[in-house]
Amino acid sequence: MNNRFIVDKKITNEFVETYTKTTYRIIGKERHSAIKPCHWLEQKLMTGRNNRNCYKGVFGIQSHRCLQNSPSLPFCTHQCVFCWRDIEKEGIGNEFLVEPDEPAYLVEEMIRHQQDIIKNHLPLRRYLDNYEIMNDVLYFMLTNKGNNSINSISNNVHVSKNKIERAMTLLKNQKFIIPIDSSLNIFRIDEDISCCIDSREEIEDLINRELTTPDEIMQAHGEALHPNHAAISLDGEPMLYPNMSDFVNEFKKRNMTTFIVTNGTLPEAINKLVSLPNQLYLTLPAPNEKIYKKTCHPTIKNGWKKIMESLEMISSLDCRTLVRLTAVKNLNVSEKIIKEYIKIIEQVNPNFFEIKGFTLQAKALSIKERLKSDKPLQYFFPEYEYLKKIALIFEELSNFPLIYINEPSRDFLFAVNWEKEKDPKIVAP
User: Fold this and answer.
1) In degrees rounded to 5, what are phi and psi of residue 313?
2) Among positive and negative, which fits the CA dihedral 340, 341, 344, 345?
3) pTM of this prediction?
4) Which of residues 374 and 244 earns the better pLDDT score?
5) Residue 4, phi then psi, degrees to nearest 5
6) Which residue, 88, 92, 203, 375, has fewest beta-carbon neighbours within 10 Å?
7) All domains of the chain in start order, with CATH
């Protein structure tokens, strides 16, 4: 491990600067914790509507009220090839090497920083302006039929290209505008709109009906200032934080639901939890030890054995449990090894099993180098259709029903020890 980021059991400014450049907020006196609003939080702020929510929405989690955090940002027992951490490749410790901040203080600071981000870095004015820009863009394209580039729209609407692109992303996702040439950023308005709508008032009615309204945007922004869910899942291995039980309890005191996502290499820490999360995610990164070592590059001994110990504890835990496979094509997921996963899931019997494609961002883009492969990046990237095929085979061979699919996140959720027709939403404490 490279410990240049820790001097005298203190996390250095270099470490903090590395992360704050990538929209993390380092939290606490000892600087081992962080928050980071996710992509879906901002998407929800843009419209306020439930269709702009992440895959956790199936459990009733609202993206704009989700506090994504880690109390153990620098420390992890793995160096997974699919990890998105910006310094994952270097790593700075597989044990908690600094004095831990107190849970109550950490939670207060996390909420305070989240509120500051919402107020000052994701301000309401941005999203109300975006609403007006969407109206301007669509009306301009309606009155200037044909193909329009982002440059021409920006020049005519008198708004910066960045703001035009943000507005057009929503319009494109709603299929109000159609890409003609993505490389040149050229678009046309949808024919059903151009043939049937004549005025700006009708454009506004369409956006209000199908996309969003100013009232919905204002409501979402106000709600975002009061997070009601803590996703203890951002980076690092959270169970390395020595005060995890009290940390979870502090969120519960504030009537917030909690998820913990752990890699399962610390069964003794899971066993010590007195205050359990509403849902515990355990990663199953491989069907066997050989693939595990190639996928996770463990920095501890007996990592696979410890994961199996954690999985065996599932039936004794008094909380909901979910086993997750973060899928990397041609590495830890294929038709040939599905039966091995099924055998493990049948034995440990969690409430849910999830297949989720790894995310192409940050250091996950260097997966080829981590695997020392000359294959192109797409060789490892599990597209939605590929994962759907795998999921359907898993469902057929296991008889565990596929109860939810989120295409943008390439996420497939199965009911295991859960009734197929029972609503999986979590009720707040």
Assistant:
1) -80, -15
2) negative
3) 0.93
4) 244
5) -65, -15
6) 375
7) 6-118+223-415 (3.20.20.70), 124-219 (1.10.10.10)
